[in-house]
Structures are given as C-alpha cells and as structure tokens.
Amino acid sequence: MKKVGIFFHPQWPAAQTLAQEVKEALASHVDTVWLTSAWNEEEARRNLEDTELLICVGGDGTMLWAARLIILQPTMLLGINMGSLGFLAELKAEEALARIPQILEGGFRIEERTLLHGELLEAPGSPAAEGGRYHALNDIMVGRGAPGRAVHVEASVDGKRLGYYRGDAVVVATATGSTAYLLSVGGPVLHPEAHELVFMPVAPHLAVARALVLPSSAVIELRVASEEKGILSVDGQVNKELAKGQGVRVFHSSHLARFLRLGSPFDYYAALSQRLGWLNVSNASGAFTRPGEEDL
Fold first, then answer.
1. 220/198 Cα distance (integer angstroms)
2. What is the largest CA-CA distance in the chain?
C-alpha cells in the first residue's frame, strides 16, 4: 500500500493514542500515512485522494461517518473497535497493532456492503429539491419531529401505494443496518453481504404493521402525510426537518462500501452470536451453552 488514512474518535483519548501508535507502526512500510479526527471532515477530504485504506479507530459511528465520506472512492475501510458492540469493526483495540503485518502482506479479503441512495422529495407541485441527495450505510428513515407526537407517513414501493403508517418512524435499512437501529426495534437480521432492503414501521399505531424484506431493485418513497412535521434521518447522523408532503425516495446505491476483513467469512455467525449474547462455547468439546451457564 502507498497511502493509508487513520480516523479516530476525538472524544476518546484512548482512540487518539491508539491511532498514533498505528500510524507509527505503518510509517516505515507505507509511503504516506495521514491521521485526523473523525470530526475534521475538511482535512479528511483534502487527504482522501489515492488513499487505499482508511482505518477507523472508534465505534460504529466513526465507521458510518467514514463510509459516507469515501462514497465515491475505491478506498477500503478497516474498523478498530473502541466502543461496545462494534458490529462494523474488524479488530479489537488490543489486537490491532499485532495484525498490521498481516494487512501489509495482503492477508485479507474485501467484503462489499450495500449502500442506500436517498433523494429529498418536495411536496407535490413544489420545485424539485436541490442538493437533497444522501448516501447511507445503515438506514434512512422518516421519524416523528417532536417527542410524544406520532408521525404520519405514506409509503409506496415501485410507484404502488403500500400503506399509511402512524407511529414513531418508518425505516428503510440495508443488511448492515439490520444489526443497528433496526435490531433494537425488533427487525430481522440479514447477512451483511445480502443486497435486499428492509422496510419497517417503528411503534406503529396498528400492531399489524410488520417489517418487509424487499428486493434490491425496490424504490421506496416515504412522505409526511400529517400537519405534524417529521424528521429525515440518514444513518442517525444527518437530520432534516420535513413538512407535510415532503419526503424521501430511497433505493439501492450504485456504489458499495468495501470493508477489509482478516478472518473467514464464516466468522460472521460466531461474531453475531457473541455480540448478541445468544450462545457461548465454553469447553473444548465445542458444546454450546447459554451465557451464564459456564459456572453452573
């Protein structure tokens, strides 16, 4: 590799310390190594050109920020987890420095992840929105604009009216997003390399509303249908107020996120089980136990 960038979470001193150590470890093997806070987008954009790998030291939020930043670049992403669950990160903080030689020797694979493309929709009869284009790794949603107030959302798929939902939000998520916010509200878990999209109402007024798994070709439109304003949220990091009639068109992006992976593809299932606390392997025979059974 000739050029590597390092992002770190600016509010975690340990993340900045580890990021500096990673930079020093790479310095004698890579022509250019740049380092910046994940919140310094201007500096990051100045350095992005020709960057082959962007290492993110922080949590999943740091990875989300980086994924949108490099949307038009062929740059690979590698996450070093300093947070809690860390579904997107590949490495734990304590193993990061020891795995650098493997990366430099090319001992990795690329995992491609689906991205969402979102286009802001103005109310019917209004001029088309300018600059209202978004990309998301996890999800795009239309949610309520004020606590205690339900949002009314009219949804369509491929130009056909799907339904009218009253609740906290309506979410469109990728497979990556299925283990993010969607997981916390009871959505289905998709394999990370699946291309399908998930459509899910959150806390709907009518409990019959359920999640739908849609094909990758689906085009979903969500519009605010009440006088109460809504919020357009992109990966939980970009938020825009929506008035009645406004909304968003969501579909499969032509771009992909490229994650650098050091383990076998089959490691995903073990990682999922561990992070969700489903099963533990507690003895040499490989017998499965539930968390907490080890001491019984």
1. 10
2. 67
Q: Residue 292 burial (CB < 10 Å; 0-12/13-18/19+)?
A: exposed
Alpha-carbon distance of 239 to 241, in angstroms, equals 7
What string of DSSP letters covers 95-133? GHHHHHHHHHTT--EEEEEEEEEEEEEPPTTSPPPSS-E
Whether 129 has a pLDDT exceeding 70, the answer reads no
pLDDT value of position 208: 67
Q: What is the pLDDT of residues 28-48, one digit of tens each?
A: 999 999 999 999 999 999 999
- Cβ neighbourhood burial of 181 (10 Å; 0-12, 13-18, 19+): buried
DSSP for 136-164 reads: ESSEEEEEESSTT--EEEEEEETTEEEEE
Q: How many residues does the chain have?
A: 296
Cα gap 95→266, rounded to integer Å: 20
Give the residue, 255 or 147, on which the prediction is more confident.
255
Determine contact, residues 202/26, Cβ cutoff 8 Å: no
**Quick check: is 235 catalytic?**
no
Candidates 220, 223, 222, 224; CA nearest to 252 is 220
Catalytic residue among 50, 60, 158, 235: 60
Two structure tokens written together for 177 = 């997003």
Do residues 92 and 34 make contact, with C-beta atoms less than 8 angstroms apart?
no
Report all structural domains of the chain as residue ranges with CATH numbers, in order of start.
Answer: 3-108+262-287 (3.40.50.10330), 115-254 (2.60.200.30)
**Identity (one letter) of the amino acid at 54?**
L
Q: What b-and-e string marks burial along 184-221, b requiring 16 or more CB atoms within 10 Å of the CB?
A: eeebbebebebbbbbbbbbebeeeebebbbbeeebbbb
What would the pLDDT profile of 263-289 be if each residue is shown by its tens digit?
777 677 777 887 777 765 554 445 444
